[in-house]
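Hey, can you fold this one?
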Amino acid sequence: MQHEREGGAAGPAGTPEFNWQAHSVLIVDDEEGMRSFLERALKPRCGLVETAPDAEHAMRLMARLHFDLLILDIALPGKSGLDWLHELRESGFAGDVILITAFADLDTAINALRGGASDFILKPFRVDQILNSIKNCFQRAHLARENFILRRELAGLSADVEGLVGHSAAMEELRTVLRRVAQMPSTVLLLGESGTGKEVAARALHRMSPRAQRPFVPVNCPAIAAGLIESELFGHVKGAFTGATETRNGLFYYAHGGTLFLDEISELPLALQTRLLRVLEERKLRPVGSEREVPVDVRIIAASNRDLAAEVAAGRFRQDLYFRLAVVEIVIPPLRERAEDIPDLVRHFMQLLTVQLGVAPLALSNALFARLEAYGWPGNVRELRNFIERSLILGGFPVEALGARGDVLAGGMDLPLDEVEKRHILRMLDACGGNKSEAARRLGVSRKTLERKCAEWGESVA
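Sure. Predicted structure:
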């Protein structure tokens, strides 16, 4: 028994942010010594502290009392703590749950977090460890309530462009352009590197437009097989081709009255570019295999991570389609050109992902922000989001990994951007053992785009 050692002196846990006495805690553990240890630590601090030796006793207490937090042992007699946690979440219990256990492995930890645990603590632990975990739970609940109230008060009052995070000069200029362009019916071409947030900008344009109450239909052009994309966009009639056993509407149909977002449009085959141009000019389409033209009322927003003017010069993109799309051309800045937005983005993703993952937020510091702002972020905002998600899963920020990735940029400050991109992609492929699908996922691009780049460089990767 180590409870006396674990229960060493600890300072007051109260903080000015919230009142500990306003919170109630239920301790569920089959070991009497652990229940007593936790009860002694919490009763002077919290308004209500109850204990139970198993899930059955705990359920009876919860039937008549409200608890903000459960401290739940995994290894309980009868129903295990992990099984009961799943049942609680399925039944709608929204309170925080801290799981404790003397026996744990990675699978158990993952199952706990997936099951909705707020934290996972391995026995034996010190008083300050459990108090800090409880404090984080109480603070998160306090902030969630405040956020809910503030969002209701600010709804309809904010002039901000939803989805765009950051207050750098580049982002403020982008917001100004998007607000103005959103009201126009014109076709828009969004240009920017992979991961900069082109779809976020497209959705913002749609939400601020007169079409906001109509559908927004995103299409990832490289993700659709070349032989199917015509049917996906325009639809087909029964018998139009082998396997067409029934008539099917296309994405233009489902976007009628709203916005169709064509992401990575540079990946469209030339033959389909011709058909798309005709639809844009005539505002009519003909489903595959049909003789009947169907009128369409759709605003087109297209996006590309490539220089379409250069693609036109190289003969890979139709010039007339480029001019038809680029009525309004908006460039989304890469993250390295607005590094001052990184703290805002980190806080945004932390708030978003802690809810999705069911984990406690991590502590942020100016030193951390300085490290993040010094990194080049070749994968842009998408890479930063993945970094925050990985950090929350691991329970800490793996900033040393950024240093390793930064070698790509640190050693190539005098290189052209294309060469920096090439080095980074090839190093990522090497890190993934040549697995293109995994490398593409980490880079935030499609496998087709990755294969095309490798072919351009003469690189053959299995």
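Residues 1-17, 152-160, 404-413 have pLDDT under 50 and may be disordered. Let me know if you want another pass with a different chain boundary.
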